[in-house]
Automatic annotation (TrEMBL):
Official protein name in the record: Pre-rRNA-processing protein TSR1 homolog
Pfam families xref list: RIBIOP_C
PANTHER family the UniProt entry points to: PRE-RRNA-PROCESSING PROTEIN TSR1 HOMOLOG, RIBOSOME BIOGENESIS PROTEIN
Biological processes, Gene Ontology terms: endonucleolytic cleavage of tricistronic rRNA transcript (SSU-rRNA, 5.8S rRNA, LSU-rRNA); maturation of SSU-rRNA from tricistronic rRNA transcript (SSU-rRNA, 5.8S rRNA, LSU-rRNA)
InterPro entries assigned: Bms1/Tsr1, BMS1_TSR1_C
A GO CC annotation given for this chain: preribosome, small subunit precursor
Native source organism of the sequence: Notechis scutatus (mainland tiger snake)
Function description: Required during maturation of the 40S ribosomal subunit in the nucleolus.
Record GO terms (molecular function): GTP binding; GTPase activity; U3 snoRNA binding
Limits of the Ribosome biogenesis protein BMS1/TSR1 C-terminal domain: 1-183
C-alpha cells in the first residue's frame, strides 16, 4: 500500500458538485475499489494547494491510499448515486506513487484596525489571547487594500496587537494573515464495490419509497 496520485479531469456529462474526501469508485489499471480522494492543484511546485471541490475547468490530482500500481495506468472515477446507479465522474491516468507529495491547506485569519496612526495600527479580533499573538508574530501580514506589515508586540491580554505597515491603513481596511497546514488523504480503501443498478428498457431504476407510493 502507498499513496497514489491520480491526474484526472471531470467528465463533461457529470455536472453535480463533488467535494474533497467524498467517496468514489476508482478503476485504476486492473483494480477496482472505493476510496475518498484528496483533490489538489497540479503544478510544477514542490507544494500543492488543497482544492475543496473537484472543479470542472481544470485537471486536478486525486491522492488516495491504495495498492501500488505502476504508472501510467488508466483511471476512471465513478460516483454512486442513492438509487444505485454509478455515473462516470472523471477520467485520467496514474501520475505517480509518491507519499512525499506535499498537499497544503490554506487558512486566512482576519482582523480589523482599532486605532490607526501614520504607519502603525492596533489590530483586534484576529486573536483573543496574548499567547497566540506571540506565537504568530513572525508571520507576515497583508491587507485587502495591498498593504504589507508585521506584528510588533501584543497589547494587553485579550488579543490586541500593535502592527507596523508600509503605509497608513484605511479605517475600512481588513488585516489578513495567511497560514498553511499540511493535510493527508484518509485511509478509506475498501476493495468491496457494490454492483451498479441496471436500467431496464432505457428507464432508470426507482427508489423503494417511490415503489411503495405507487
Amino acid at each position: 500500500m502507498s499513496v497514489l496520485n491520480l491526474l484526472v479531469r471531470r467528465h463533461p456529462g457529470y455536472s453535480e458538485p463533488v467535494k474533497s474526501k467524498e467517496e468514489v469508485i476508482v478503476h485504476c489499471g486492473f483494480r477496482r475499489f472505493r476510496a475518498s480522494p484528496l483533490y489538489s492543484q497540479h503544478t510544477s511546485a514542490d507544494k500543492h494547494k488543497l482544492e475543496k471541490f473537484f472543479h470542472a475547468d481544470t485537471a486536478v490530482v486525486a491522492s488516495i491510499y491504495a495498492p501500488i500500481t505502476f504508472p501510467p495506468a488508466s483511471v476512471l472515477l465513478f460516483k454512486q448515486e442513492s438509487d444505485g446507479v454509478q455515473n462516470l465522474l472523471a477520467v485520467g491516468s496514474l501520475l505517480s506513487v509518491d507519499p512525499n507529495r506535499v498537499v497544503v491547506k490554506r487558512v486566512v485569519l482576519s482582523g480589523h484596525p482599532f486605532k490607526i496612526f501614520s504607519k502603525l495600527a492596533v489590530v483586534r479580533y484576529m486573536f483573543f489571547n496574548r499567547e497566540d499573538v506571540l506565537w504568530f508574530k513572525p508571520v507576515e501580514l497583508r491587507t485587502k487594500w495591498g498593504r504589507r506589515g508585521h506584528i510588533k508586540e501584543p497589547l494587553g491580554t485579550h488579543g490586541h496587537m500593535k502592527c507596523q505597515f508600509d503605509g497608513q491603513l484605511k479605517s475600512q481596511d481588513t488585516v489578513l494573515m495567511t497560514l498553511y497546514k499540511r493535510v493527508f488523504p484518509r485511509w478509506t480503501f475498501d476493495p468491496y464495490v457494490p454492483e451498479p443498478t441496471r436500467w431496464r428498457d432505457g428507464v432508470p431504476p426507482r427508489l423503494e419509497g417511490e415503489e411503495k407510493m405507487d
